[in-house]
Amino acid sequence: MTALAYGVSDTLVLAKRSLLRIRRQPDLLVSFTVQPILFVLLFVYVFGGAIQTPGFDYVDFLMPGIIVQSICFGGFVTALGLSDDLKKGLMDRFRSLPMTRSALLTGRTLGDVVTNTFQLVVMFTVGFLVGFNFSSSVGEVIAGIALVLLIGYAFSWVFAFIGLMASSPEAANAYGFTILFPLTFVSSAFVPVASMPSWLQPIAEHNPFTYMVNAARALFLGTPAGNDVWLALAWTLGIIVVFAPLAAWRYRRVVAR
Amino acid sequence: MPAAVETNRLHKSYGDVQALRGIDLHVETGSVFGLLGPNGAGKTTAVRILTTLLDPDDGSARVAGFDVVRDAAEVRRHIGLAGQYAAVDENLTGFENLQMVGRLYHLGHGLSRDRARELLASFDLSEAGDRLVRTYSGGMRRRLDLAAALVARPPVLFLDEPTTGLDIRSRIGLWDAIEALVSEGTTVLLTTQYLDEADRLADRIAVIDQGLVIAEGTPDDLKDQVGGERLEIHLCDDDRGQEAVAALTSIASDRPFLEDGTVRVPVAERRGTIANAVRRLDEAGIAIDDIAVSTPTLDDVFLTLTGHAAEQEEKEQEAEVAAG
Predict the structure, then answer these.
(1) How many domains are contained in chain A?
(2) The whole model's pTM is what?
């Protein structure tokens, strides 16, 4: 076998391990199912009445935003998992094996794509039940789903880096949420940017997260996209290009605790 | 036959702390080599360098004939690593753990399965093989960890404090397993802070302290360095220890001394020693509670070589950590 074939096989072996963990620790599943469902219901029924979204039903406005947000957090399993591997000394075992060195990272992030897909199915199902509908072509919907999964994949690399930097799984979790929560809320995900105070608007408008949400909205609802899809794609690929090498660099140097 | 492990002036520092200050080791193929020392002596750092987890700052090392920095990938194909952390995945079954490691050694699907079953059987884990590891006891985890290190039948095995924290029965079980491996020709380098463990398992021992090898040899060589046998006497009245020391000086090969209320008398000749000592103490009117001849242990070796006991340093370190 070639090095590439070994790399693919090692990645698949470790992606499977990552997914088995979720089956064995069902409480992790809560964050992929119950949590997003609660968010949709809270926003639609609690905040929805108070938020004006000119030109949209709130549920249509909300769903692309909440989907992009949930998918970004999907990668936290990678941060938790890597941090746990460090704490338990498993990292030493993996690094002493003749496997492809980056496979632990590519395996985990690939595992995230599977859980994110599952999460997407749950979210769309709930969305349809509370009145969400696609209003664009099939091709655009498929492109939108692909873009959302790619965004999730990019953030898995951010979480991989966080997991390898943090001193414990709990700290990894805290870092992830502290960094991502403001980023996702100061955006067009839940409210129109125009409703924010004027000093905050430029920040929200240029937040990469806003481009991603606007792109998802354009692809799912058929709204005018402008440059949003391309900007979202550029940011997503940019995040992968920066964070994948950073995580790989950290992995090579990291010392078990 | 080339050495299984050969190091040349290995240096490694973490900031201001010099973990290794020039370590030279030579481990013959097929032998068991014990790296003995207290916590923080540099044992784990040495193993981490030899297993390619860490690059040395200076010096070089070869394992199974390959340079640990230049040919790291080749080294990884020839080694197994097991240690104090029992690095197994709690959310997988024992079988899944071993199979996964087999796949990552690129043994292929079928061979990985067969090897996993075989190892579970030989480590007495067949029945538990399909249970999640988080339900395993400490001893079972260590056995699985050792099994994982053996999946690819590596010619050189590194065991980093394999029995630290285990109860005595699990320790003996693990020792038996290690001895069985050695009889099949595997070279083992083990680190330990247990002197009895090194004594039982190792053909040769290097004693390391503060990043330096301070003694090397067979367990018997090291014991000889400390001197011969010793009389150990417990008195009925602890207060008369100094009197006993004075009474026994003439039959000792070296100065007798008091330690933890026990009178210790180095002697050159075992025969007749007890009778001799009893007579002298009797003449001095000192009553004996218990008397025995003891052979030196590696604890004595450590005390002689470093001027402090292995256990004691560990306690001091813990105290430092606790004091922050």
Answers:
(1) 1
(2) 0.81
What ipTM was predicted for this assembly? 0.86
CATH number at residue B288: 3.30.70.2190
Q: What is the number of domains present in chain B?
A: 2
- Tokens at B311, concatenated: 């256990």
B110 CB within 8 Å of a chain A CB:
no
Same domain, B139 and B267: no
State which residues form the domain around B234. Answer: 228-295
Q: B4-21, pLDDT tens digit by residue?
A: 999 999 999 988 888 899
Whether B100 and B210 share a structural domain:
yes
B28 by DSSP, 3-state: which? coil
CB-side neighbour CA atoms (13 Å) of A2: 3
3-state secondary structure of A98: coil
| Domain limits for position A146 | 3-253
Q: Are B243 and B282 in contact (CB under 8 A)?
A: no
Q: What is the distance, to the nearest Å, from the Cα of residue B106 to the centroid of all Cα atoms in its chain?
A: 31
Q: What would the pLDDT profile of B285-299 be if each residue is shown by its tens digit?
A: 888 888 888 877 767
Residue in B closest to A101 by C-alpha: B73
Q: Does A1 sit within 8 Å of B52, measured CB to CB?
A: no
Shared domain for B184 and B58, answered yes or no, is: yes
B89 touches chain A (CB under 8 A): yes
Bridge-based pairing of strands B156-160 and B79-83 is: parallel
* Helix and strand element counts for chain B (H, E): 12, 15
